[in-house]
Amino acid sequence: MLKIKDVDMLNNVDLVYDNKIFLYGAGDYGYRAVKLLNQLEIPIYGISDSDERLWGTFIKGHEIQSVKEWVELCKKEPVTVVITVADPNSIEQILQVLEGYRLLNADFYTYFALKTTIELHLCDSRIKETFREDFLIAKRTYYDFIKNDLEDRAREFIFSVMLHDLIVVWQPGKVGSTSIARSLKAMGIHYTHMHCLAFHNWVDLELRNACGISHYWESEPIEKLDILKKSEKVKIISLVRDPIARSVADYFEGLGTLYSKYDNIDRGVYQELNDFIGREAELGECGYIFEWFNQEIKAFFDIDVYQYPFDKEKGYQVVCKDNVELLLIKTEKLSGSQDILGQFIGNKDFKLLDSNVGNQKTYKFAYEEVKNTIRIPEHIIDFYYRGNKAMDHFYTEEEKKRLIQKWCH
Fold first, then answer.
1. Backbone phi, then psi, for 170, in 5-degree steps?
2. Would you state the pLDDT for residue 221?
3. What pTM, to 2 d.p., does this model score?
4. Which domain covers residue 199, as residue numbers?
């Protein structure tokens, strides 16, 4: 059975250069791949697409071949096939189609792997200096976008809460909040979705410094009453997740753009990811995800979630203080939380949409492989699952045992 080998490419930039490259997919990602390879002066030996109407047309001087012609070229020698399609489900369907052609000399990767491998190994001597310079300019522009997006979400919250009662989906990134946000949107319920109001971008201190992000509210602190005095009630929905699972998801979300660069090309994804998990564990007394509640919710609303009992079996708690109501759900219990969510927002018809975002991302194949095979260092396992008071607040002993088994394999 054909398999996507994105992790192999992420770990070894030579795979971009050693074999002849063939592309499958002539849509937007196909165009991007052609442009990228042209900029790198890496030859393209064939492009094809399932859409027969595209055969015989061109992308930046490269003719799109029929599948039969393309397959015959692929069979001649060992080749690298990059499937330049965005949707993971479509990629799997393409693999099923190509399975019947017995491409025994081909290894298959995605556009995500091709693009990210170049970004991660930008210091490789084979990459042109002009490309490197252009990429770094683009990356700084992306940092500015992230900075502005975070600021805009914080401003939106302040603006909205002073106009009307508000539901805010407010939690660390990569804990499953998109499912809730999409569900609220589908029902026409007004909400704000954000990760930081205090604007401490302290998920990754190196990122904060690289982006030039300062603490936005330092110069103009906003007191709790300033936020709340115009509102009768604020409802906060927040989530907490297994910290290692969250770190793995967060790493892949920013891979190649935000968090990671291989200054040492001998380092691979597994080592880089374990270092990333370790850095998040060092933030605060109990690690990033647990410290987030102090830096955000406690700082602005004086609600210390650790001072309220959490039902570990049901996986949620509701905290009421002044005109603030907080619903805190354990991500691992989210799928069974539709009723409590409906009660909390006052809508008995609320439906929680299934939104497995990780399986819809372009990095799905690398993410799934690494998530299922990485072995977490023992000192990180000990830190989170053996004596971490915040972890113990949310998770049962049985849950922690399962997580230890999962990450130690």
1. -140, 110
2. 40
3. 0.88
4. 132-408
